[in-house]
Amino acid sequence: MAELVQTFLENMIPEMEEMEQLGLFTRKEVSRILKRRRAFEYKLRRLEKTLDDYIEYIEYEQNVLSLLIIRRNKLGCKLKKEQIEIPIVRRIHRLYGQATKRFARDIQTWLSHIAFAKLRKEKGSISRIISKMLRCHNHQPELWIFAAKYEFEDNNDSNTARKFFLRGLQFNFNSEILWLEYYRMELLVYQKSQMRMKVLGGSVDKCKRTSLDCSIALVIIKKALEAIPDNVSFFLKFLPICRLFDFTEKHEKEFFELLVENFSDHELTWDAIARRKLLEAQKTLEDGSKLLPIHFEACLETFDEAVKHLPTQVMYQLYLNFFLEQLRKKVNHKKTKSHLVTLCLEVFETANKQELLNADMFVMWNDVLSNVGLISKAIDVLKCATKKYPLNVNLWCLLLNYHCISGQENSDKVVKTFENALKVVKNKESWPLWEMAWNYYTSFSMEKEIENLCKRGLPHPEANISSQIRTRYLLWLYLNHGIESAREHYKKFHRMKPLNRMFFEEYISMELAQSPVNMDNIRSAYNDALDVYGEDDADMWINYMKLEMTNPKGKLDQIPMIYFRASKTLNESSLAEFNHKYTLFRAGLTESKN
Question: Do 168 and 178 form a contact (C-beta atoms < 8 A)?
């Protein structure tokens, strides 16, 4: 092994001597480079090699190459590049070749090799690397697209790009992205051909006309339909690509004929046809003109026909999504928006009568009503929704929110809605309801209701609810009845399970806000908290130590004891975090003293 490494190093001596003679590197730097290369070569002679061994060596050689360029520019030296740079470039290619051969599955190494070749503008090398990569990863559609894109964009070779797509589809016949990108490329080829014809100002011969009449792109769509049948979502992905180009009107017409022929009874087909009617109406508008109700007529008639032909939940949802998209736009005329809102609400009513609204559609209905100020109607809608979907906590929250924002006079409705919701909503999903009720009662200082809510919430079987209520109740007691009441209840609560960190942090903040500060209570709270969270909460230990260090009533002799307890209590990962933060804190404290 040593002899082989020595042979490699001896082969490097001529280039190193040239570097030194030209003044690109000093003798010391040359020795350092040889030393690093020797270490890298020995790594690559081991029985068990890792990809990182190759990558580190490659990166080092690339850095040497970059530094050479900088030194040459600085000295204005252009001599003997073939004797110096070329051997380094060959070495990098050799290392990449060994790495991709041994670790062929690592795609990033292949791409890095291609990127290096691109940087060197070595087109022949790039093509060879891509071919090898595709032989190893022929079932990766993205790599076939990468290869085709390189040939089309960098080499301006549409024929080779087309061959890559065709070969890729042989291995990945059901790849959606491969079909879509192949289609896009053929339209780009056609676009380039048109631009070339405009520049040349002449006609083209028959052998080129196939690429100029857009027929290949249409064939791709048909073949894709054969490869991935019964998938209208995939088929419709061709449409936005088609509309990127200004010469595809006839093509788009044929696309819709295929769509209707193969997917006439699918909701997405009707949705696409209806939206196309609106696009056609928009094309008739003059610049700066706004859409009027008349421009929506053909589109909405198609949607109305669609829900009659396919009265399904999906069809209604597509119809309503269209309305919401238009209502969110700021370009529509006020009269148009009013017209759309009226029609939209009618569609909601019709779908509801046919019992075709899901929970999300009820939320959409509520949003429309809320935006136009029909609050009473929105409440009625949500009442209907909670009857149909009683387990949906979002619907209950929307209904409860309406009663909460209407003021204290509706407290009976708040209580009734809250109680009804808790009867049906799962415990683990009910916290938003508890939170809204708590915020409502506290905002109006409804002490009796707060006490009743706490009596139910404190022993609640769901840990999140009981711990949240406990923390909020403690803070409410402090703000409304003072620190003594908070201390009294803290003594009752701090042993109750489950607890959360916020409970202890809130109580410690309360004690720190007192004048004078009762350090014994704060230390007791920290110890209580650390009994529960001491194994994994490094910040809590740090904050405890900061308190003793920085507070005028702190005891510095307690810090070593706290540190010792922390080192014995924290788990391995948290202990490393603790030591790091403790070191930073001590360093900051030392600087402030200086």
Answer: yes
